[in-house]
Specification:
The chain is of the alpha+beta class and about 425 residues long. The chain contains 16 helices and 11 strands. It binds fe (ii) ion (FE2) (2 copies). One fe (ii) ion binds next to loops.
């Protein structure tokens, strides 16, 4: 029997929580920011995600008879994330960002010294990250730096951190991690050359204002290229410049720059961009979807992650969406999956699954039967409808952990569509 459940006065649902041992809890105190909520024995949040906790607070609460619980790992849908960032380092980065960005806004230029300082800040943050759990999630606290206000600064730091952690989780190459962090951090630097009234304007922009705003991609490239122009011996990685220039290009709709060009919507062009730049575009959209601004309430992480999944083949390619979600979905969603058992999903099956050319994809509807720990995009499904031929098909169950030809490209949100699929399934 679990020793916790033998203790008296515990009204918390023990199947969902586990008590934190004293030594583990002590490690969390100090100038660290929690990326998860800590609950008391009555299931009230006692320490909130995104806040730092001190040893004094722990002792005080402990003396009041409060015990500390975190949500238990879910056997089915992955590890709960308990990773932490150093608040000091995060604050330093955000403060330095605010001062660097305001000086760039005044001069229109970024100096090489500012670039080097930024690089140093990012590396310091990254070094702190290395001592933590590589497979945990540090991302629940991203919004905590919002007390530095200024949307562009916070957004830049957030996208820098998201890009850093994406690369950190998928690559063991320190250079790549550093470069992608910088590319994320500097992607919107061009906005500093766009009039502040336009950048900060609530609501929609006029056509003229919108055209000015679209220029932030080219301006970003120019700011970065200028650093090299004035200090020719200093190199800025092409990837960082491309991040600024191409982060708004999209897979099958026109992005920008070059939105008017004939090949503007070309998938070929998009797919030739470095993977880092394409993923950076997804990090950018994720942060925009979850950010609350004075004129718009941000989405919760689960809603935003499902929205990104549903942008497969549209804003982003299926494989990039899967790379992003595989690396970050559990961390961003506090260890929980983004699809439920019983949900209806649309599957893209490469032609190979039916013995044809891989490029001739077909589409199917399926129901999610069983979710597996740590594999949010690879449940067992039951395929029951051929969406390409628009008719029912023999039902087959498929374990997406071992089927390389099928990928989830939509989770069905629309209630009429859900109802229709439910009827087909019952027939
Ligand atoms: Fe942008
Ligand atoms: Fe952005």
């Amino acid at each position: 029997m679990n020793p916790i459940s033998q203790k008296e006065n515990v009204s918390i649902d023990l199947s969902r929580y586990e008590e934190i041992s004293h030594s583990f809890f002590e490690k969390l105190s100090g100038e660290k920011v929690l990326s998860f909520n800590i609950f008391d024995q009555n299931e009230n949040i006692i320490f909130q995600a995104g806040k730092a906790i001190t040893k004094d607070e722990i002792v005080e609460k402990s003396n009041q008879g409060i015990r500390f619980f975190i949500p238990r790992l879910s056997e089915k849908i992955g590890n709960y994330d308990y990773e932490i960032f150093s608040k000091d380092k995060l604050c330093t980065l955000a403060e330095n960002t605010a001062s660097t960005y305001s000086s760039i806004r005044q001069t229109g230029k970024m100096t090489y010294d500012q670039y080097v300082q930024t690089h140093r800040d990012m590396v310091e943050l990254l070094t702190g990250l290395k001592s933590e759990d590589r497979y945990g999630g540090v991302l629940g606290l991203l919004k905590d730096i919002s007390n530095f206000d200024y949307y562009t600064y916070v957004h830049s730091v957030n996208v820098g951190l998201l890009s850093m952690i994406y690369q950190y989780k998928t690559s063991y190459n320190a250079d790549r991690i550093r470069t992608m962090s910088m590319a994320g951090y500097l992607h919107d630097i061009g906005k500093l050359r766009i009039s502040k009234e336009i950048v900060d304007k609530p609501g929609s922009l006029s056509k003229q204002e919108m055209n000015a705003m679209l220029e932030h991609t080219r301006e970003g490239y120019r700011i970065l290229a200028d650093i090299e122009k004035y200090s020719p011996q200093k190199k800025i990685s092409d990837l960082i410049k491309f991040g600024a220039l191409f982060h708004h290009r999209k897979f099958s709709i026109y992005g920008y720059p070059n939105r008017k060009e004939r090949d503007g919507a070309s998938r070929e062009f998009y797919l030739k961009l470095p993977e880092e730049v394409r993923i950076l575009g997804i990090c950018d959209v994720y942060d925009a979807l979850t950010t609350t601004t004075p004129w718009r309430q941000g989405n919760d992480s689960r809603t935003a992650l499902r929205a990104i999944l549903n942008m497969s083949n549209y804003y982003f390619s299926v494989s990039d969406v899967h790379l992003f979600l595989k690396a970050l979905a559990l961390s961003l969603n506090h260890g929980r999956g983004i699809i439920d058992e019983g949900s209806f999903v649309m599957i893209e099956a490469s032609g190979k699954s039916i013995g044809k050319e891989p490029s001739s994809a077909v589409y199917e509807f399926a129901r999610v039967i069983e979710l597996f720990k740590g594999r949010p995009l690879n449940p067992r499904i039951e395929v029951f409808y051929d969406a390409t031929l628009n008719k029912k098909r023999n039902r087959i169950q498929i374990d997406l952990r071992s089927d390389n030809y099928r990928k989830i490209v939509r989770v069905i949100e629309n209630s009429r569509m859900n109802e229709m699929l439910r009827k087909v399934l019952m027939e």
